[in-house]
Every structure is written in C-alpha cells, then in structure tokens.
Amino acid sequence: MEPLVSGFPLLAQQFKSLFRKNLILSWRSKRSTSLQLFSSAFFIFLIFCIQKALDARFNTTTAFDNVFDPVALVSPPIPPCEDKFYTRLPCFDFVWSGNASSKIGLIVSSIMANNPGRPIPSDKVMSFGTTSEVDDWLFSNPMTCPGALHFSERNATVITYGVQTNSTAVGKQGHFEDPTFKFQIPLQIAAEREIARSLIEDPNFSWVVNLKEFAHPAVATFSAVATVGPTFFLAIAMFGFVFQISSLITEKELKLRQAMTMMGLYDTAYWFSWLMWEGIITLISSLLTVLFGMMFQFDFFLHNNFGVVFLFFFIFQLNMIGFAFMLSAFITQSSSSTTVGFSVFIISFLSQASYPLFDVETCIADLVNIIDLSFPLQIITQFGFPYSTDYSRTYRAIWSVFPPNLLAEGLTLLSGATATPLDPGISWSRRGKCAPNDTECVITINDIYIWLISTFLVWFVLAIYFDNIIPNSSGVRKSVFYFLNPGYWTGKGGKVAEGGICSCTRSVPPPEDVTPDDEDVHEEENTVKQAASEGEVDTNIAVQIRGLVKMYPGTTKIGCCKCEKTSHYHALKGLWVNVAKDHLFCLLGPNGAGKTTAINCLTGITPVTAGDALIYGCSVRSSVGMSNIRRIIGVCPQFDILWDALSGQDHLHLFASIKGLPPASINSVAQKSLAEVMLTEAAKIRAGSYSGGMKRRLSVAIALIGDPKLVILDEPVC
After folding, report:
1. Where are its TM segments located (predicted)?
2. Cα(188)–Cα(182) distance, integer angstroms
3. Is the pLDDT of residue 41 over 90?
C-alpha cells in the first residue's frame, strides 16, 4: 500500500475533505441553507412595506420633497365638519360668539352663504353670546366642531374677530390632518372677507387670498432602512449565527470531531474549513442582500457605492460567524444554540435602542413633534451613544466590541448619506471621510470596517483558545497558559489537564497496590514490569501497557450559594499487559471494569493519570507519540459516531482523506471497504437511514481504513 500523506499536503487534503463535508451537509439541509441565503429577501421586503407605509403616512406634506415651483392654495373653503378625523356626530362646521350684534349676525350669515363651492346649512352652525359660553360648550362636546369664530363690534367702523381651533395634528389611515391649513385659515379668510364687505357695504367686493410655501429642497426623509434596518439586518445575520453554532456544537456533542481527531485530524484544517465554508455562505448572503435592496429601489442601496455597502454587510456577517465560533466553545448541547442566538438578538436589540428610529435633521424637529412621530424608548442611553463628541474614545471602544452596535452605527452613516434625493451617498473614495456638514462625526464607515475585521480576528483567536482550555466531552483540557509552553509550538510536548477551569482539584491518593488473583495475569504483569525496568523493546510487541492508571480526581465546584464536592474514582488501577503483533487480543470484564477507559487512554481521548503505554514504540503520553500512533491505528468506538446526512461512501471518503490516504486511491479503498462489510448497495444511502447493524459495520469499515497496524474495536458487534 502507498505511504500515507503527511505534513502540509495532509493539511491541505484534510481541509479539502472537510470543506466537501460541509458542502454536502449544507446541500442536504436545503431548508437551513436557503434560510441563510435568502432570508434577506423576506426582511428587505418587510422593510420595503414599512417604507411604503411611511411614505403614505407623509404624502400629505411636501417637507420631504424637492419643491421648486410651489402650488398656490387659493381661498380654501370651510370644509364640512364630517371631514375632520375622528369627529363625533352630529357635528357643526363652526360655532361663533357675539350673537347680540345684528351686524355680526349678518356677517356670519354671509360667511355661510358665500362659502366657496358649498353654502353652509344653518343647522351646521351654532351661535353663542360670549367666548366663555363657547369654551364651556366645546369642553362639554369634544370632537364635535373643528373651529370657532369670536366677533366683537367695537363701533360702527371697527369689528374685531378671533379664530379658535384645535391645533393638535392627528393621523388616520396613512394621512395627517393639519388643522392650521384645513380649518383655521379657511375660517380666517371667510371672516376677513365678509367683515370687509360689511364695512365697505359692497357684497361683491373680491377677496382672494393665495397661500404658497417657500421653494425648498427635501429635508431628511424617514428611512425604513435606518429605523428597522439594524434589527432586520441583524436577524438576517442571526440565521447564519445560529446554524453555525448548532453545527459546531452538534459535532462536539455527538463526538464527531473526536472521531476525526482519532484519525489524525489537524485542528487547523478543522477551523479553517469551517471558516472558508461560512465565509462563502456569508459572501453570497451579503451579495443577495445588496441585490435585493437594489431590486426594491432603496436609495440606501442605489446611491451608496455598491462595494461600500456590500463590504459592510459581508464583514459584519463574517464577524458574527467569528462570534459564533467563540461562543460555541462554552456550549455543550446543540439544543442550546437557539437559546443563545435568541439571547444575543435580544441583547443586540436593547443596545441598538440607543439609536433614534428616525434620523431627522434639527430643522424638522418641530415638524416631527407636530405630526406626533414617536421615538423609541431609550433603554440604555440617549441618542447617538457613544458615537458623538460628547463621549470619550474609551466608551466607543468598549461599545464597538459588540458587533451589532457597529451594524447600527454603520446603517446610520449610510442612511444619513442618502437622507434626501440630493444626497449622493458614500463613494468608495470617501468611505474614510465624514460628511461635510456632520459636526458630530467621530467614526467613518472605513473605521467600522477596521473595527469589524479586528474584532473578528479576536473572536477567531479566542475560539481556538477556549476550545483548548475548556473541558471537552471527556473532561480533557489544556492548561490556561498552554500557548506559553514551547512544546506546544514545536509539537514535542504539552500536558493536558482535567476538570473545569474553575474547579479545585483535591489531593489525589495513590492507587491501591492490588495483586492479581489470576496466576496468568500476575505472570504477565511481572513480565511487562521486568521488560520496562530493563528498558527492553520487543519488536514482536505491538502494545505494551506499563502500569496504566486512570483516576478521575475529586473536585470542589463552587456554585451559586453552594459548594459541591465529588470524591475521586479509580477507573484503572495499574494495568500491565503486552499485546503481541498479528494477534487478536480480547479485553474482557464486567460493566465498569475499565475496558472503554483503557481504550480511550490508548487512543488519546482520555489523558493517562500514571503509567504509560507504548504502541509500536510510541508513548501515549507524548503529543508527538500520539500523533504517530493515530497514523497507524484504527478505532471503532463503543458507539457509532456518524453524520445522519452523510452516506456510507461519504464517510469513508472523509475519514480516508483525514487519515492521509493518497487522493488517487481513496475511491478504490472506499469501494473495497464497503464491499468487505457488505454495504455496497447502501453506499449512497444516508447513514441516518441505516439499521443498527449497518451502522456498526460502517464504523468497522472506517476503523480499517488505511490498513492500520493496530485495530482497536470497542464492542464491535451489536
């Protein structure tokens, strides 16, 4: 058989096979992959609907349009009271005071008769003697009259009047009602017209008033992307975030990664294969997000440079993937991934609440208040925290560590650059510059790029670090300062520890010196002890176990309001045995005797407490020795460790590549192995559909890949 691949070629081969594994799993989980890729279409459609609702809500005002030639409003008539929003019936078009004067009575009659386009019926008007009477009536009959006129005849040539309306703006079904233009001005024009005609005694006197606003550019529009964008775009990223955490934890929980490690998997290949795959998914998702935004004709996507927007979404989602890598080290159950994702989303939502829903300029702040726009409850801080000159760089640095905060600020910058139709957006060349009129600018979109890339690297490094120091499913971890050990970098050493990081290991008593009852066992023990003491290495011995001890130490775990202590447990109390080459060796014993523990020690899954074991001269207590051992052994664990979505053929291709078989021989070896365990017809069927016996045979086939010198089978039959 051809020699196994090693070194960098093996690393590249493992990376390629793991990447292919991720591709197959994603392809066969089409629903999850589709959500990752196309969720942006759904959320952008929601933003589009919200934007249209906002546009419809403000279509009665020209404040958000470029007005070059304002249209004049010519002598508007007094509208019927039924036109007022939320009016109560029966209602009155207007009420008036001063009915003690006959001249004023004639003026009011003329107002009613000469109302342009619609004479006002007498039953739609009510008169009073004084203004106090009008106030009392209005208080007792709310929402029944839009306005009142108050007249006073001072002398034969002087008549004064006043107009009283409810100035509160209200909205209904996407429209705003401005009482000033709709009710107050028509009453004012009608009163002045008829008073003038009465005083000059000319009923045909022309009184035409034109009202026209200033020509003006559009003020900042209400952008749905800026308002709900941080939440919705975060939701898009959370799909990839949750799926990534779930995938990593599933492989850890089901010991799939442990199985690959026993075959000689490099951690570098594992992490970078996931990073490359998720990077591609993120790239496609970000590209689709921008394209969908352009398809729905958002100025945010059309006016800002394509590269600026795409890079922003891509780096942010990539940052969230790195964040998922880091958090996965702390989670042991895949069912918790959704809870973690939801928690991150809620925290992000609360932190983003410090940004205003509508990014409007100061010049329209009064208008915003008039039309009763609501701003979000400032759950954490006031608007703009901490990206303004009012806060120090320290606050901004701390705040920027959490990726969703940078997302919200980036969307604010990009939305502000397209706030009006005249704004050109952010070009690629100006991504590192502040807007010309932005006096509060303390961060640019280019700064956000740098922050996102920097924190991504931090998350990725922390993911690898925590993955090493947090106990795995077997309770094994490295020292907190393992990276300071030169042996870690040279591959010549590095001890592992057990228990939690915060657990206090109690004193470890030595194992009891037990003399075997069986004479043959006692003789074997003495033979191994003598060979070990003399330093002899018998070339006919495949495995020599020298006083192997495995003890799980007692620990003291300090929890909330309690201190839990566990006593030590000796799983192996000094095992001495030789396993000859080319022999079948059976390790027998009742449940709990330590058979699986011994196998775990030999395969490097569990660290040895004392003693040693040599496999073809390589020590299991040496990292270099363990690396060499994994290249010459095959392991069938006690329980089947398989991906439900991968077929038998996929499994053999994957493990053969990890083992280091030459690429040209992998396919033939896989076919031969499947035939040997009678799975040829089921080669392309997913392992999740296999029976228990078929899964066991597949596990045996995996253990035999690469023609290993030593095959360890832990209960290989069902």
Report:
1. 232-250, 271-296, 308-331, 448-470
2. 11
3. yes
